[in-house]
Amino acid sequence: METAGTLTPEQTERLTRKGLRLAQFTVAYNVVEGTIAVTAGILAGLVSVIGFGIDSGIESIAAVLVGIRLAARLRHGHADERKERITLKLVAVTFFILAAYVTYEGIMSLIDGDAPESSPVSIGILVLSLIVMPFLAAMKKRVGTQLGDNLILADAAETRICVLLSISTLLGVGLYMLTGAAWLDPVAGFIIAAFAIHEGKEAWEGELVEDDDDD
Fold first, then answer.
1. What backbone torsions phi and psi does residue 178 show, to the nearest 5 degrees?
2. pLDDT-based confidence at 212, cuts 50/70/90?
3. Quick one: three-class SS letters along 91-108?
């Protein structure tokens, strides 16, 4: 595989434009996914699905940051690293807010004993995410590796987290629909909160790319 050090200017520009297109697709897809998930989650009273939808919004923010950086690189050949670090910390804060939200809602759901409704729409959007996101994450990682771009690799890591969130949320919602155990949904929400805290901490410290070193 070619790396950033061996790429020609033409190859670098081509990969950068590909990375920009991936970021643009991520924003568009996650806005639609998040809107559907939050709406379906609210209608059915599914805390984990609402949290999943909010996470889609957070991923959109990350993809916007990547897009801004790549667009600036294509225009000027460089990006403002200081502003990127500040914005990355703001993204980390949104993860902590997400974790606090789903934890609070999950605890209140357990205390009140509210039973969520079944939601085929939620199942559908989660299954679709499991189809789209692994492919998208792999493409981002390939581009990020070839360019030697840490921010693209971090974005790929966030997309992989979305896959894990899809699995945990789908298990919680699916098992509830099968067993009627209302406590499964808040527990799935707590799992999302744990992922969000971890991802937020990594974003705050600028260490999201470390997971890629082990691949």
1. -85, -40
2. very low
3. HHHHHHHHHHHHHHHHHH
Q: Is residue 203 within 8 Å of 95, Cβ to Cβ?
A: yes
CA–CA gap between residue 159 and residue 140 (Å, rounded): 9
Single out the residue of 116, 120, 92, 94 nearest to residue 105, CA to CA: 116
Distance in angstroms (rounded) separating the CA atoms of residues 72 and 100: 34
- How many Å apart are CA 202 and CA 200, to the nearest integer? 5
Domains and CATH numbers, the chain: 8-209 (1.20.1510)
Rounded to the nearest 5°, which phi and psi values hold at 46?
A: -100, 105
Residue showing tokens 């679709």:
128
Cα gap 197→97, rounded to integer Å: 9
Give the residue among 156, 54, 63, 130 at the shortest CA–CA distance from 99: 54
Q: pTM for this structure?
A: 0.78
Distance CA 98, CA 199 (A): 11
Q: What tokens does 195 get?
A: 């992922």
Overall size of the chain counted in residues? 215
pLDDT digits (tens, 9 = 90+) for 183-194: 877 888 888 888
| Amino acid (1-letter code) at residue 51 | G
